[in-house]
Amino acid sequence: MESKRAAVIGSCILVLVIGVICAFVYVKTRPIHQNEDAAKSLKAVEVFCEPTRYKETCVRSISSATNSTNATELINVGFQVTMKEIKIAQEKSIALQKAIADPATTDAFETCVSYLDKSVYDLERSLARMNSFDKDDLPLLVDDVKTWLTAAVSYQHTCLDLLENTGENGEKAAEQMRQLMKVGSELTTNTLRMVDQVTGVVEDFSGLNRRLLGESESNELDDYWRRRLDQVARTTPQNLIPSATVELDPKTKKYVNLTIKAALILANKTRGRNVPFIIYVKKGEYHENIEVRDNMRNVMLIGDGPTETKIIGNRNRKFDNINIDKSATVSVDTDHFIAKDIGFENTAGPDADAAVAIRVNSDRSLFYNCHIDGNQDTLYAQNYRQFYRDCSISGTIDFIFGDARAVVQNCNLVIRKPVQGQSCTVVGQGRVEPDQKSATVVQNCRIVADANYPVKDKSYKTYLGRPWKQYSTTLILDSFLPDIIDPAGWLEMGNGKDKSNINTCSLYELGNSGPRKGLSGRVKWPGIKRIDDKGVAENFLPSVFFKSRVRSGDKWIYDAKVPYHGGREKAPTS
Predict the structure, then answer these.
(1) Single pTM value for the model
(2) Active site includes 102?
(3) Catalytic-role residue among 398, 435, 486, 559
(4) Where's the Pectinesterase inhibitor domain (predicted)?
C-alpha cells in the first residue's frame, strides 16, 4: 500500500512538473466561446510570459497568434511563433545577401543561413521532446531541451559574428541582419528561460524521481550499438570489422580504395538507423577537408594512433578569405560522433589568423586518445555535449573555444609559439546568454610548453583564457599550471584592451597544482569567481555537468568504454 501510495503521489507531482514546463504556472483551461472577451486570453499569455527575459515580445507575439488559455497550446504557440520569426529572417536575408557583392560577406551569409536552419531544427526537436513526455525521463528531458535551446541561441549569435568578421560590408550586413533577427532571437532566448525555470522544480523532487525511475536506463543506444562499442574497446583496429576502411599505398601514397569523404558518403545509408558506422583510417597522412554532415549519424572514426593516422588541412581565414567555420580541417555536424586514436591538424601558421583543426557541432560527441593540433582556434567546440579524454590539444590563441558544454579531461594542453607581440590563451568560451547550459571544464589536465615555445623570453605571455563572450564560463579544475602562465591568470579580449565582458563572465579555478596554482596574483575582475569543494564546483563535475543529476545522463560516455571519472581526482604534479 505504501509503495502504491508513493507511486500515486509521485505521478501527481510529475504531472504538476510537466505542467510547469508547459506554462510554469497553472492556467485553468475551459472552452473559449467566440463572443468571450479576449482579455482572458491576454491575461493567460501575460502569466505565461512572466518568467521570460523579453516579456513584451513574448506577450505581443503569442497573443497575436492565439486566443487560447490552454497551457499546452501556449507553449506550442510560443515555439511555433519563434520558428516562424527565424524563417522570416532567413527569407529576408536572401535578398540582403544578393545586394552584397563582397565574396567574404557572401560566404558568411551562406553559413549564417545554414545556422538559422539548425536553430529552427533545435527548436523543433525541443518541442517534439516535450510533447513526447514520458514521466520516467523527466530530468533528462529537461537537460536535452536546455542543451538544444542553448545551441539554438548560439547559432543566431554565430551568424552575426561571421558577418561582422568580414570587414566593413559585413559589419553593415550584420547590423541589418540583427534587426531582421531581433524578434526571433528574443523569442528563442525566452524559450530557454522558460525551460530553465523548471529545473529547480525537477530537482526538488529528485529523490522521489529516483525512486520512481528505479533501475530504468536510457534506450538511446541499443544492444547492437553496445556490442560494437565493446568490440572497439577490446580489440585492435586491425582485428576490427569496420563499416569502411580507408588506407594509403605506403609507396605511392595514393588511396587504395576509398577516400575518407567517400567512406562518409556510405555512412549516409545508415541515416535513421540507430547503429554505428565505423570508419577505420589506417596509418598515413590524409590531406582532406572532411565534413561529417547531419545525415551521417553515429559515425565512429578510428585510426592507428594519433601520431600514425592524421587528417591534415591548412585552410585559414586570413589567406583563404573564408569564414572561421569553413577553415576547419574536419567539421562534425551530426550527433553521437566518436573519434579514437587519430590526429586532426591545421598546418596554417601562427600568422594565419583563425585556422580550425576540428569544428565539433555534435551532441554527445566523444574524443579519446586524439591529437588536435593547430595555432589559433584549434578546437572549435561549437555546441552541445562533448567529452575529450587522454587527448593532446595544441595552439596559441583561444585554442579551445566555442559554446559547447565540454569537458576536457586528463589531456595535455600544449602552448605553441605565437607571433611576436601576441599572447597565448588556452580557453575562449562563448556563452552569450545567462540561461544557456554551456561551459568549458578543463579537468586533470597538464598545460605544457611546446618544444619551440620560448619559455625564458618573458615578452611571451600565456594565460588560462579570456572571456570571449558576455557570459563566458570556464573552470580550470585539478590541473597542472606551469610557470609560463602569467600570474594574472586571465586576459581581457582585444589583447587586454577590451574590458566589456569582465563583469559578467564566470571564470573559476579550483584544486590546481604547479608553479601558477596560487590565486593571489590573479586579476580582480567581478567575473573571477571564488568557489569551494561543496559550492559551485559540484555543478561542473562531469557526473553532474553532463547528467544534471540524472542516472542515464552521462551513460553515453560509459557506453563508449573509455576511461572516465565523474568526480574529482588529485591534480597532476608535473
Answers:
(1) 0.89
(2) no
(3) 398
(4) 40-194
